């Protein structure tokens, strides 16, 4: 009986050490992927305020030295409520796709988005009881967002990007930008 208890204890100890090592490896792999993203952003002079690396298990992503999907919050500029990057397939300092979502504050506190029939956000909001339509342009290194044709927000961009859309949400008026190549080229 004593030999069975010793064998069982030894087996359970080996499993516990193995599971602990696996958790440590996963934690270190996530840190490695975050460092890779920070290096990429550092080349662009961007400092993240928050980062969420996706793509579990991190071990497999780290073994292939590839951060599959990362959400990066950067400090919003004055007049903005949110500035977030979505970096996809970052490998060897180059990303397959980089999108940026910048959200400008509504021109009034009394504002609410007007949603589509399916619940998705639209390019409209009700501000002080009046419906307003938002649009935008990204040209000559500048993003400009308009409210009923009048400029309401502007952001200098480090390079030409494509404006994919403008929509109103709870936080303000968001513009989706897609970088043609790498974020800071």
What's the SSE blueprint?
Elements: H1 2-42, E1 48-54, H2 58-63, E2 66-74, E3 80-91, E4 94-104, E5 111-115, E6 121-127, E7 130-139, E8 142-147, E9 150-156, E10 161-169, E11 172-179
Antiparallel strand pairs: 1-2, 2-3, 3-4, 4-11, 5-6, 6-7, 7-8, 8-9, 10-11
Characterize the structure shown:
The chain has 185 residues and is an alpha+beta fold. It has 2 domains: 1-74, no CATH class; 80-178, no CATH class. Helix content is 25%, strand content 49%. The chain has helices at 2-42, 58-63, and strands at residues 48-54, 66-74, 80-91, 94-104, 111-115, 121-127, 130-139, 142-147, 150-156, 161-169, 172-179. The chain has a 6-stranded antiparallel beta sheet with strand order 1-2-3-4-11-10. Strands 5-6-7-8-9 form a 5-stranded antiparallel beta sheet, with no helix packed on it. It is elongated. The protein starts with a helix and ends in a 6-residue tail after the last strand.
What is the total tally of β strands? Answer: 11
User: Helix content range of the residues, please?
Assistant: 25-40%
Q: Averaging pLDDT over every residue, what do you get?
A: 88
Structural class: alpha+beta
Task: Spell out the helices and strands N to C.
Answer: HEHEEEEEEEEEE
β-strand percent reads over 45%
């Amino acid at each position: 009986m004593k030999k069975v208890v010793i064998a069982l204890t030894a087996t359970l100890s080996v499993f516990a050490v193995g599971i602990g090592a696996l958790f440590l490896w996963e934690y270190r792999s996530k840190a490695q992927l975050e460092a890779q993203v920070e290096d990429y952003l550092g080349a662009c002079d961007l400092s993240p305020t928050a980062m969420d690396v996706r793509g579990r298990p991190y071990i497999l992503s780290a073994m292939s030295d590839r951060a599959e999907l990362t959400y990066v919050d950067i400090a919003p500029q004055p007049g903005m409520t949110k500035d977030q990057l979505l970096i996809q397939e970052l490998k060897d300092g180059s990303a397959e796709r980089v999108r940026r979502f910048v959200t400008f504050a509504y021109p009034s506190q009394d504002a609410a988005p007007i949603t589509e029939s399916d619940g998705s956000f639209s390019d409209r909001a009700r501000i002080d009881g009046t419906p307003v339509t938002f649009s935008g342009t990204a040209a000559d290194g500048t993003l400009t967002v308009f409210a009923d044709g009048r400029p309401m927000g502007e952001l200098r961009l480090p390079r030409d990007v494509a404006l994919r859309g403008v929509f109103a949400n709870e936080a303000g008026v968001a513009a989706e930008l897609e970088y043609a190549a790498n974020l800071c080229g």
